[in-house]
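YM 10:42: Shikimate kinase sequence, as discussed on the call
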Amino acid sequence: MQISLVGYMAAGKSTITKHLASQLESPSWDLDDEIAKIGGEDVADILRSKGEIAFRKLERETLLETLQLNGVLATGGGTPCYYDNMDVLLKESYVVYLQWPMKTLIERARSARESRPLFDGVSDEDLPEYIAKHVFDRRPYYERANHIVFCDGKSVDDITKEIIEKWKSQSQHT
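YM 10:58: structure's back
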């Protein structure tokens, strides 16, 4: 794998991955899509039917397989936070954290909450606090990335260009 994107749910990892791969003329991989292929159902259904522990095991196996491929990878929001996944990501790829202001993450998550099983049972009123705590818990993993993109106010093109510049600069020094 060349580049892996990490960040909270609804941070735009899948969108940026596709655009970045296109710019690099490289394949793109979405870990959730790969998990769905192996698991036989989409990630939301796997989480709801089998539970988070079973999902995280499948996610780990799929991550290890997918990292052997060449291209750009969109990880799941929790992927870097389980097992030694962040260590593996850093060893096998250039890792970029897509960081957004909390307000933006809450707005995006709210509009996509039906497809986010981790929000099941969380009231709309409690969602901001839930997301803030989640991001707080996950941030130490995300911040280990090779590069952090502060995405607020940037277009997909701007974010992609920044990642390519930093990645090329990094790869020239290794």
